[in-house]
Specification:
224 residues, alpha/beta, 12 strands
């Protein structure tokens, strides 16, 4: 059973999270501050940590720094009443993977936890399955029912990035930075060209996924 660690000094918040997450089959361990959380992580195999920012003895910022000093891959979901952009930026810079602001919808919490765990599995295996299509980032192979397909590197990276976060909108700027690099000086419309090529090549896979345009924003991959 997947074991999660909830770190929050508010018992009612821990109980609320626990109620919904246990109903989804997760095994939970609770801690009311960062020091106890670190002690638990030394003794237990934890798949994901949900943590508050404002806590006694060791706050969430310090806890993130401590965790990242010995574990760079475990998903960290920060939950806090502070919704300012500066707090989110600080959390991401320290190593937080996602951010949820109180008050939150418990169902959204569950969805974010599942998304983070799925992302962690993808990062570990570097393989994404989209229906009969398999993307392997270790070899940059694309296979449909075992048959090897040819896909240029940039198209592969673009498809793999979108497929790693199904349903999430990526702006052209984000995709340019992640795939072409911050030093890229070309037109960001090159993303549109590559998306068009990907759509044409995978028309036969629309029963499993498609790339959707988000008007004025960018693109997202939708699993069907």
């Amino acid at each position: 059973m997947t074991k999660l660690l909830i770190v929050d000094d508010d018992q009612h918040i821990r109980e609320l999270m626990g109620l919904f997450l246990r109903n989804e089959g997760f095994d939970l361990i609770e801690a009311e501050n960062g020091l106890k959380a670190l002690a638990i992580m030394e003794a237990e195999t934890i798949a994901l940590v949900i943590l508050d920012v404002m806590m006694p003895e060791m706050n969430g910022w310090q806890l993130v720094k401590e965790i990242r000093s010995f574990d760079e891959v475990i998903p960290l979901l920060m939950v806090t009443a502070k919704g300012e952009a500066t707090h989110k930026i600080k959390g991401f810079r320290l190593g937080t993977d996602d951010y949820l602001t109180k008050p939150f919808d418990p169902l959204e919490l569950v969805m974010r936890v599942k998304a983070l765990l799925k992302r962690a599995r993808i990062n570990a295996s570097q393989i994404i399955q989209l229906g009969s299509l398999e993307l392997n980032r270790q070899t940059y192979d694309v296979k449909r029912q075992g048959q090897l397909l040819t896909l240029p590197l940039k198209e592969f990276e673009l498809l793999f990035t979108l497929a790693s976060y199904p349903g999430q909108i990526f702006t052209r700027e984000q995709l340019i930075t992640q795939i072409w690099g911050m030093d890229y000086e070309g037109d960001d419309r090159t993303v549109d060209v590559h998306i068009k090529r990907i759509r044409e090549k995978f028309m036969d896979d629309r029963a499993f996924f498609h790339i959707e345009s988000a008007r004025g924003l960018g693109y997202r991959l939708v699993v069907t």
